[in-house]
Model the fold of this input.
Amino acid sequence: MIFETNTIEEVKVWVNAGPTSDFPEDGGSSIFYEGEQIAIFNFSHLNKWFATQNLCPHKKQMILSRGMLGTEGDTPKVACPYHKKTFSLETGENLNGCEDSIKTFPIKIENDTVFVGLYEKK
Ligand code: FES
Done:
């Protein structure tokens, strides 16, 4: 079932999300794993990668991987393409203060391959 974690210490499995070349620069793409959609962002402008749930909590759309990347102060964020709600890519906090936050996941790059860290819930 659903996997989630916020810390590397809790990671139970590193899921191979594919080669880095599958993910557009300064953009995102989603993967399916165990029935869940995970958005992966290649924030090349900051030379950082992020992983979050793909579901936007506003209207329950699987769309965040197609969001626009940017920053708010020092906080990297994604703006949902539908109604422009924004979320921190580091903590998942809703930066508009009006919707639920989103889950974030550890991510790492090894040998030009993207891995997302997940924890299996009981
Ligand atoms: S569905 Fe994402 S902001 Fe409305």
Observations:
- Residues 24-104 form a domain with the Rieske Iron-sulfur Protein fold (CATH 2.102.10.10).
- The mean pLDDT is 90.
- The pocket of FE2/S2 (inorganic) cluster is lined by residues 56, 58-59, 61, 80, 82-83, 85 (CB under 6 Å).
- Residues 16 and 59 are 29 Å apart (CA to CA).
